[in-house]
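User: I'm putting together notes for a lab meeting next week and I want to include a structural view of one of the chains we've been expressing. I don't have a solved structure, so I'd like a prediction I can at least talk through. The sequence is below, exactly as it appears in our construct file.
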Amino acid sequence: MGDLRIITYNVNGIRAAIKKGLLDWMATVPAEVICLQETKAEKENLDKELVDRLGYEQYWFSATVKKGYSGVAVFTKIKPDLVEYGHGHGASDGEGRVIQLNFGDLRLINAYFPSGTSGEERQGFKYQWLNQFMDYLENLKKTCPRLILGGDYNIAHREIDIHDPKGNKNSSGFLPEERAWMDRFFGAGWVDTLRSLRPEPGQYSWWSQRFPTVRAQNKGWRIDYLNVTSNLADRVLDARILPDVTHSDHCPVMLRIRT
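Assistant: Thanks for the context. Below is the predicted structure for the 259-residue chain, given as structure tokens.
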């Protein structure tokens, strides 16, 4: 297969993103696999021919608890060897948060981590989800040792990953407990692919829509990631953020890996 180029992108509603030119961009983007989060739709809501024309097969895992909420999808030009929907966490699977695909010896996980911004109840769910997901990943490594985890993690890990760390120290997405989870995650044998190649500041993947000027001023957060287990570190060829792509309040993150 050679090199595999993967993109993760929270589109904040795929139908809204398509109206802003998402499919035109996908026609030009050099990636074999595109992982989308927050699709807020079901496969039937899209014109299948439009996507087929781009050469992608589609795999969707949409929320069942509430239509037009959450949801993940993978568009791929390479046929996966296996597709797994969900990860066995009932509440999470009802919200359509995880889809997994095997490509040769690689297991790609596309995950939309919960947000805690709407209040204590969802923040509590987020902590529960994070702990369960960590256990799940550790167990999965026994049968699928080479993992790629892409998605919207809804956590900025370090001060370098957020434009105003002091002002956001009490904000969901940058709370000490969330950042400690990221420490444990990377400590458990995961590689931050972007930081391994690009240590410079000012690299963000999300900008608040409440303040229209913050994207132009690049006052953002890095909460979208494509990370790999450490046994794939020497196969990472490139990792970068694509901030000029503007169909969403997030932007895409790209990884190129040797297969």
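A couple of points you could mention at the meeting. The first strand starts at residue 3 and ends at 10. The chain is about 25% helix and 25% strand.

User: Perfect, that's what I needed.
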